[in-house]
What does this fold into?
Amino acid sequence: MLEFINVGMNYKTLSGYTEALKDISFCVQDGEIVTILGPSGCGKSTFLFIGTGLTQCTSGEVLLNGEAIIEPYKEVGFVFQDHLLLEWRTVLENIMIQGEFRNMDLELTREKALSLIKQVGLSGFENKYPWELSGGMQQRVSICRALVHEPDMLMMDEPFGALDALTREQMRVDLEKMWIQKRNTIVFVTHDIVEAILLADKVVVLTPRPGRVKEVINIDLPRPRNMTVKESKEFMGYRKHITELFMDMGILHDE
Amino acid sequence: MQNTTYKEARRLRIKRMVFWFKNSLPGIISVLGVIVIWELSVRIFDIKEYILPSPSASVMAIITYWNAIRSNLLTTLYEIGLGFGVTVLISIPIATMISYSKIFQKTLYPFMVFVQLIPKVAIAPLFVIWFGFGVMPKILMVFLLSFFPLLMDAVAGLQSLNPRLYSMARTMNDSEWKFYWKIKLPNALPHIFSGLKTSISMATVGAVVAEFLGADSGLGYLLLRANGDINTKLLFAILVVLCLMGMVFFMIMGFIEKKVIPWHVSQRKNLKDDGTKKSDFRATA
It folds into this structure.
């Protein structure tokens, strides 16, 4: 379980201190998908960095299974907004870097990587370079890289943000399918309301900077969440509610 | 079946060669044109050989004086090899230190820039006083001239890294060495290669200049002697050899670059450029 307790984050900038996050508390249960939804620039990404110990928060604390995180912990897979694939490595080698850095058995890593590649529908592309792939495929590779060491937790920072709407939809469906098999914990940052609802067990809605928790909404929709779910009354309800929250915060308005 | 793929491969190869030829044609024509004009003017205006020998006479001179040229060429190659080796061995580690430490950057950089600003050719006579006529002052001069371009490019390469890659590495392992070896250095290679290319050209200049100022062998020394004897033919022959040597160095660097970083943008072939469909292939999904 990952707990954020009164977490705050201040940045030092040229013009003094900027408050990025303020007084944030919520928790992520094991095996649950939590989406963090907020407008651009509200410090959503900072969250994942704090949650993995890559950045230290300036106030409050973050507990992982009851213990404070003081340095980057390793039982995590990170998917960044830009895929961050190494252009001198092929698809397979890019996934293998995880094993090389972690000193894992490379033969075993290779097998796992190949089966992941197959799972995300990239068979036949193992030996291609990242620049030979489309944006969606690149992000799939980066997801494979984040999964190959079988981490308990997956941190995803707007992973589908740079993709077109159709690819995005497919990626969401595939991610859910994978999660149903593995049941790992996923913290997923997005600014897309529909994506946030469809993926989540719990949506954390943040306010504009400084980011604060506006509301935590438990999503009770059957999985897998297919087209019918999207047209259900419950889904519409969640969407309406969140849209109203954003209108309330002045981020969305009719005129 | 196998026969057809073989034929296909050969067809592609021929196509690529034709393409290469077509691509280089303007360059070949312009160089040949200058040589022809040169040759013709020397003949038509009956220019004395000690003032300007014709291209054909210069090339003939390479054959006539081959023994002298060869032994002196070996000396020069030896000096360049050692000097350039020292450059590579020293500038990459220093670039690494600079990329890691602000203090190194602040202390080393001004010093390096200062050394770079000294007209090296002007201090070359000093090297003769300090180190005599042996190979040492030549290596030093090669090093001094070729060091800076490589250092600058290597630093630029090592510093141009997406900071998120560092975060990514931290989620996997804390080892700085692994990060350097598997991410930071490969990422800098395209810059380093462009530095190596500039650097090797400067190395040639360094060796010849050092030989001018005090040597008993080497192409620079031979050049000076040919000049003294008003043997302009030999002088031109040496110039041709020096040019060819520079070209070969550059091509070797290009070849190594192609082998080491085939993935880089500058090395990728695409559909429009070589006329084949083989390499640029972008899938959709």
Summary: The interface with chain A takes residues 162, 164-165, 167-175, 178, 182-183, 186-187, 189, 261, 263-265, 268, 281-285 of chain B (CB under 8 Å). Residues 2-44 of chain B form the longest helix (43 residues).
